[in-house]
Amino acid sequence: MKDLLDKACLAYYQDGDPILTDAQFDRLAELHNYHDVGYTPTDGIRHTYQMYSLQKCFDILFPPFHVLGKDVVCSPKLDGAAVALTYVNGSLFQALTRGDGIHGKYVLDKMQHRVPATISLGGIVQITGELVAPDSIENARNYAAGSLNLKDPEEFKTRQTIFYAYGLEDDKFGFTAEYGDTWTARMKYLAEQDFATVHTHMTKGLPTDGLVYRINDTYDFNSMGHTAKHPRGAFALKEQQEGVVTKLLDVKWQVGKSGVVSPVAILEPVMVGDAKVSRATLHNMDYIRDLDLELGCDVEIIRSGEIIPRVVRRV
Q1: Could you give all domains of the chain from N- to C-terminal order, each with its CATH number?
Q2: Per the residue annotation, which of 2, 7, 70, 77 is the catalytic one?
Q3: Active site residue 247
């Protein structure tokens, strides 16, 4: 299963051509305790500040941080390609894809056509955000991510994409703002610098995949710290894909085109989406053992990419 999820990460973050939907990836990652996000590009450059991923939450009643007495803000979670911009003494210096959050791919030759060349802050500033395309475009997320892989910047300029900022970090201990140092104040500052932001600009008509909740006060947010992967002061509320439960009747072994022998679940026929499913992949014996499967047990089925049936857990 880890190989499948690693492959899905590579396809999503590097190629912009997902092999699993977000909901399917989230369900498989949760069930199999998979926490890796992104990929490490072979030609990667180190981010000025690490780009953390957001912890996913599927129930607003159980957020992963204590919010009593805190000012919490909510914003849409745009579904595009994450990019980090670095400004040095007010001038655009670097633009990187997310990569693995530590190293990213250089895309300044393209992003310089979508963001301001200068800002009024001195020192070293990293602005993070999402390059998105209108949801009227088929596979809008793939379209936006794929545009960053174009070799010709002139072709990139013809793409219907826009950069929405959602984060600002600087090398100072505080951010000078009229109403204090908060996330909303930082977003208002970026809007004044001619950035579109998820707080100040309309996002209707853009692809989203959930909501982001975070502590507004920057000091409180930073005081909560980070895990190795996530900030503790923010989380993403997402809708989890529901699978369909059926019965495992038998296991057959088949030989693939490459000559590899793999197990296939024979299922009590059930409708998953608009297709009747009676067989699903089981990958290998370790996968069967990990799920503790036995004949006659109930299992949950999803269709990866709305095509390939997979057994994701024993019910």
Answers
A1: 79-207 (3.30.470.30), 242-315 (2.40.50.140)
A2: 77
A3: no
